[in-house]
TetR/AcrR family transcriptional regulator
Amino acid sequence: MSGTEGRALRADAERSVRAILEAAERVLAEEPGASMEQIAAAAGVARTTIHRRFASRQALVEALAASAAQQLAQAVDDGRPDTAPPLVAMHRITANVLQVKGAWAFALEQAAGPDGEAAALHQDIARRCIALLQRAQADGLIDASADLEWVRRVYYALLGECLRDNPDGADPDTLAVRIVDTLLHGAGPRT
């Protein structure tokens, strides 16, 4: 097999895995107890293809969680948390994260094993969130005495609330404004 054929085969295998993961997200979000056969049918692949790629249903769910966590990490990276002005980065990251979390809700709700790839990615995202909050604090956007771990937890809760209940059908950018404004200013009057 030539190098070109090997790359084409790898690209084909990557597309197959991507189709399986996307189908798994759709199917499992609707029916968490769905079988591998149901996921294979939704992905348009043979059941044996899924079993060849994933040793078990749990392995598929873990791969799904890791893939979603990678996309979440990329959403954070795309917001330039280390270089953009903190307020700009907070808005960009929030809108990006809302898009990923909206598309991969099932996968991101899965409890990651403490030693798994998804858990490591979530820990790194939390660390980067704290670093951005420290930058925002240094710029005077957050009170100097604020407990940044608490602020991070409140921020995560605001993200979750917007995803659970968006009666206006607001887009991620509008929701990002609402989340960041609430995080930085609360519900008190603007002075």
Q: What stands out?
A: Residues 93 and 115 are 26 Å apart (CA to CA). DSSP finds nine helices and no strands in the chain. The longest helix spans residues 3-30. The radius of gyration is 19 Å.
